[in-house]
Amino acid sequence: MTRRPLPSTLPTLAVAAALAVAACSKPAPEPTPAPPTPPQPKVSVVAAPTTPHWDYGPGHGPALWASLSPDFAACAAGKSQSPIDIVKAQTTTVAPAKTSYGLAELRVVHHEHVADGVNNGHTIQVNYAGADTLTLGDETFDLLQYHFHSPSENTVDGKHYAMEMHLVHKSKAGKLAVIGVFIEEGAENPAFAPIWANLPKEKGKEFHLEHLKVNVDDLLPAERTSWRFDGSLTTPPCSEGVKWVVMTAPVQLSAGQVAAFRAVIDNNNRPTQPLHGRTIATDRVKDMTAR
């Protein structure tokens, strides 16, 4: 039998090779650049506290705090507890030298700082590692953190404000001083925007915003008159010996800003406590702001 020769594949291979060379010679299309990603907050998990559980509800709320732990005894037995109702007609305008704060005036120095906040289940707290100071008489206190309550804890003539901000300071001797700022509903406040845009919604989550800075002084009212009195922490263990400086003028947040906070934390205010003969002094805060 005569075999037929197979058809030659050489022309086909030659064409394929030529096409491959031509394809390799064409420049590859440039990839479409991805849109820039905005800076995102660094989120970390905060360790759960080891203190007994307390909250603002019926089972572990303010009326029961003292029974939850012997460490919380001052919440019931203390005679200089906070918050209080500030009755304007009963305040006393005195020179600072006549108050328990000692000599001279109150001075506040604030700077910009990086936002670093946490939802601890009781409030939204912004921690601070800068050099802001508060001076009462001849004693200086460093700003540790500020946090928020809704509605306000302190009241004025029985009236609650929508919210209240507490700026907590500590001296080198371990004494505490708190600046209280009332917040009422009104115009939108851009000074709070960096914090409000990143409110941590989950308990135990912390955010750190390296690309955003907050000037603490911008969070305070322009009018620097204050009420000053001796008080305590408004949360367990309700420790006393805290110097309180409550600004007489409120700042404003819009209804939307207030609602945004309340969507995360709400009704985290301790009821007002008896004065037990304490004096509420009215004086001016000397603003020593560093911008």
Model description:
The protein is mainly beta and 291 residues long. It has a single domain, classed as Alpha carbonic anhydrase (Carbonic Anhydrase II, Roll). It is built from 5 helices and 16 strands. It has helices at residues 10-25, 65-68, 74-77, 193-196, 255-262; strands at 42-45, 85-86, 92-93, 106-109, 112-119, 124-127, 133-136, 139-149, 155-156, 163-171, 176-185, 205-215, 225-232, 240-247, 251-253, 281-287. The strands form 2 sheets. It has an 8-stranded mixed beta barrel. A two-stranded parallel sheet has the order 2-9. Strand 5 (112-119) and strand 6 form a beta hairpin. The protein is globular. It starts with 9 loop residues before the first helix and ends with a strand. Mean pLDDT is 83; it is low at 7-26 and 99-104.
Précis, in short:
By secondary structure, this protein is mainly beta.
CATH topology description: Carbonic Anhydrase II
**Helical region count?**
5
Please write the string of helix (H) and strand (E) elements: HEHHEEEEEEEEEEHEEEEHE
Side-by-side strand order of the widest sheet: 4-7-8-10-11-14-13-16
Mean pLDDT: 83
Q: Kindly estimate the percentage of residues that lie in beta strands according to DSSP.
A: 25-35%
What is the CATH architecture assignment?
Roll
How far apart the termini lie comes to 105 Å
Helix fraction?
10-25%
CATH superfamily: Alpha carbonic anhydrase
User: What is the molecular shape?
Assistant: globular
Beta-strand segment tally: 16
What is the makeup of the main sheet? 8 strands, mixed, barrel
Just give the CATH class.
Alpha Beta
Total number of distinct structural domains:
1
Q: Runs with pLDDT <50, length 5+?
A: 7-26, 99-104
Instruction: Round the Cα radius of gyration to an integer and report it.
Output: 30 Å
Class from helix and strand fractions: mainly beta
